[in-house]
Design goal:
Layout (H helix, E strand, L loop, with lengths): L3 H4 L5 H9 L1 H22 L3 H26 L8 H14 L10 H10 L12 H11 L7 H12 L32 H19 L21 H10 L12 E5 L2 E5 L7 E3 L7 E5 L5 E4 L6 E4 L2 E7 L6 E4 L2 E7 L5 E5 L5 E4 L7 E5 L5 E5 L5 E5 L4 E6 L2 E6 L4
Parallel strand pairs: 2-4, 3-5, 4-6, 5-7, 6-8, 7-9, 8-10, 9-11, 10-12, 11-13
Antiparallel strand pairs: 1-2, 13-14, 15-16
Helix pairs in contact: 3-4, 3-8, 4-5, 7-8
């Protein structure tokens, strides 16, 4: 794919050649030319809904490329910067899509929506490759070689996270926004218009009957029973009763007193807490498909009923509590005395050199791992033991951990 025309308005010819020749950009273009084109072609053969989804995925990859080029020449901008906005909006447009595809491609559609957050690797540190692997594992079916190639690209160039340039080389307007993704339009069809006219005419016809319309009613006995259609109508109404809809709550991201409340947030990958005092704490509740970074030292951190999230923290004075969490990644970059885990599944704890003296207490947890990070960005994954053997010694129970080979 030729990107020279896309940047010709914003770079001099020598600067453009320099950016295009960088290995980070050249390898990404190789990924786009091969895997993405094949992915879009397959989507086009699966119907209009998948074709539109393929166009959205292509727009998300183009937005990621624009941010890579910007980041190689500039320091990291603020999270509300328009470059980041274009990048995150392209990903969220796929994750939050409300299109209902046909039954034949429902599994394909769901797999892409679960894997596309892998493009947010630019906001993940220090192990974006593990994050991409988890997004691929979340997909219920194979999404082709596209995301596998993305994993290899990030492992080669951004193993410990994307490295932003320290000095600005172009203005904020230097990168144009990527092409807007196609919108899903639900234009009214001629059939719906015809049915509306028929309903209106039927209503007017009934109104013109006047008092004669009451002749259709059947007499009702004193006990409330009748021979008319009332019973049938009541039966149909009772049978059509639907279960109550689950109540939805508005997202909350606010500091109340000395506690940060992060509640009911979905599909947000740029959340940052920069607390001014180490006496402040953070409480996360029902966060899904999102990532949060705590840049400064806090008192304690609590994560409750959250799934498929990434949390990065600096140092903690007291402890970190994880309750009913699923597919959570927690990165500890500083001192953490204690991590308590209760009823968690598929949790990964990334520990740096500063946090390796942590104590971990777990109960009712399964498929949890501890990843020991090295200075070069590599890590060693160690599985947490789940089986406990209990024997009766005299009148006391003695429990020991069953080591796995």
């Amino acid at each position: 794919m030729d990107h020279s025309a896309y940047y010709s308005k914003y770079f001099k010819s020598t600067q453009r050649r320099k950016m295009e020749d960088l290995p980070q950009v050249a390898d990404y273009d190789s990924l786009v030319n091969a895997g993405l084109q094949e992915f879009v072609t397959v989507c086009q053969s699966l119907g209009p809904e998948m074709q539109q989804l393929g166009s959205l995925v292509k727009g998300a990859f183009m937005a990621t490329r624009a941010l890579i080029v910007f980041g190689l020449a500039n320091p990291q901008p603020e999270k509300d910067h328009f470059v980041f906005h274009q990048y995150s909006s392209a990903i969220q447009s796929i994750v939050e899509s409300k299109v209902k595809p046909p039954k034949e491609v429902v599994s394909h559609f769901a797999a892409v929506r679960e894997a596309i957050p892998a493009l947010s690797f630019m906001t993940i540190k220090p192990a974006p490759t593990q994050f991409i692997r988890d997004m691929i594992d979340c997909s219920r079916i194979r999404t082709g070689e596209l995301f596998t190639e993305l994993h290899l690209y990030v492992k080669k160039h951004h193993l410990t996270g994307f490295t932003w340039n320290k000095f600005p080389a172009m203005s904020a307007a230097g990168i144009p926004p990527p092409p807007p993704p196609p919108a899903f339009c639900d234009a009214p069809s001629g059939d719906s218009h015809a049915s509306t006219e028929a309903s209106r005419n039927a209503l007017l016809s009934d109104l013109n009957k006047g008092s004669d319309i009451t002749k259709l009613l059947k007499p009702v006995k004193r006990d409330g029973s009748g021979d008319g259609p009332g019973k049938t109508i009541a039966t149909k109404t009772a049978g059509a009763a639907k279960s109550p809809v689950a109540k939805t709550y508005p997202p909350k991201f606010v500091l109340e007193g000395r506690k940060w409340l992060v509640e009911h947030i979905k599909n947000k990958y740029d959340l940052v807490i920069e607390n001014e005092s180490m006496s402040e704490s953070v409480a996360i509740y029902k966060m899904e498909n999102s990532s949060l970074e705590c840049k400064n030292k806090i008192t304690n951190l609590t994560i409750d009923s959250s799934r498929q999230c990434g949390v990065s923290l600096n140092s903690v004075i007291a402890c970190v509590e994880l309750v009913r969490c699923d597919r959570l990644q927690l990165t500890c970059n500083g001192k953490v005395p204690l991590i308590s885990m209760d009823n968690c599944e598929s949790v990964q704890l990334f520990l740096t050199e500063q946090s390796r003296d942590v104590e971990i207490i777990s109960a009712k947890c399964s498929s949890c791992n501890v990843c020991l990070l090295n200075a070069d960005g590599s890590y060693k994954e160690v599985a947490m033991q789940e089986q406990i053997k209990t024997v009766l010694v005299g009148e006391q129970l003695v429990s020991t951990v069953v080591e796995k080979n």
